Amino acid sequence: MKKILVVDDSKAMRMIVRRTLRQAGFDGNDVQEAGDGVEALAAVQSWGPDLVLSDWNMPNMSGIELLRAMRGGGDKRAFGFVTSESTPEMRKLAADSGALFLIAKPFDEDTFRTALQPVL
Amino acid sequence: MEPSLDDIYSLTQQVCDSVLGMSAELLEGSPVPVRTEVMACVQITGAWQGAVVVTCARAVAEAITEAMFAMDPGTTSAEELDDAMGEMANMIGGNIKGLMPGPSQLSLPTVAEGTDFSAAFPGSQLAVEALFALEMGTFGIQVLRQDADGHMHAHDRSAAAAGLG
Q1: Does CATH place domain A3-116 in 3.40.50.2300?
Q2: Beta strands B38-46 and B50-56: pairing type?
Q3: Three-class DSSP category at B111
Q4: B73 vs A20, A33, B69, B110, B139, CA distance in Å?
Q5: Which end of chain B is more exposed for a tag (fewer CB within 10 A), N or C?
Q6: d(CA A68, CA A75)
Q7: What is the predicted ipTM?
């Protein structure tokens, strides 16, 4: 069983991500949630997830700031974005910053399965 | 440059299908009603500047919220409604941002609710609007484009406020 941290300032979207994880066949994993990058960074340090699934645009600390903070501290754990914004520039920035994938909202379980299978 | 009606239709259908599990029908040629009860919007700043506004009656917003949270009818809190409608604006606005020239930034969503409010986007004009029908009612999407000079124009201001009663 793997630990997955779902980071999004929208509670509705966190629920949808959880639902999609189940539909994609990843329901045997331990899933916890964080409402922004600050909460996520604390959870990364205290809970130690195997995978962080993060929104990009959030108050307090954005997803890209979270990723940079993790990588800046030498944290190499798996990280992917789930965001409504998916321009080529953002995909490149995400990859250059150390993200494994960027899933665009809206998404379906097939997209989740393809992106997460190599990690989980 | 502005998004086409086909763009709006396509991405709205994707959002409704995958997030709400509902089919949205485009009511072609129907204007977005001036009076509304819930408004959610995001703003885009940068190489392309504007706003994406989602409006609907409270009953429709409640149905969208219930679908998004997979909750029982009649149990929606104000916080959940703001969350769900903000996410609708975020998803639609984020996708529209991706269709426009970049780089640009997407704001966090703003949600307003009530029967006696107005919203203005100074310096903006209505670029495209679409009215969609769900089973429980209609919702509107308006894309407002801000002039490059950012100047206020009286006729633009009235257009930008259209649909936001």
Answers
A1: yes
A2: antiparallel
A3: strand
A4: 22, 25, 11, 24, 19
A5: N
A6: 9
A7: 0.91
Distance (Å) from the alpha carbon of B26 to chain A's nearest alpha carbon:
19
Tell me which residues of chain A have a pLDDT lower than 50. none
Task: Evaluate whether B41 touches B109 at the Cβ level (below 8 Å).
Answer: yes
The structure tokens listed for A100 are: 């494994």
- φ/ψ of B22, rounded to 5, equals -130, 155
Residue B121's SS3 state is coil
Domain boundaries, chain B: 5-161
Residue A12 to residue B65, Cβ atoms within 8 A: yes
Helix or strand holding residue B139 (H, E): strand B137-146
Predicted pLDDT of residue B122: 86
Q: Which candidate from B69, B90, B102 shows the least CB-CB separation from A84?
A: B90
CB within 8 Å: A59 and B94 = no
Taking a C-beta distance cutoff of 8 angstroms, is the pair A26, A109 a contact? no
Which three-class secondary structure state does DSSP give residue A32?
A: strand
**Whether pLDDT at B164 is above 60:** no
Contact check, Cβ <8 Å, B69/A9: no
Tally the C-alpha atoms within 13 A of residue B130's C-alpha that lie toward its C-beta. Answer: 20
Q: State the pTM of this model.
A: 0.90
Q: What angle do CA A111, A115, A120 make, to 5 degrees?
A: 125
CATH code assigned to B5-161: 3.40.1550.10
Furthest CA-CA distance within chain B: 48
At A43, which amino acid appears?
A
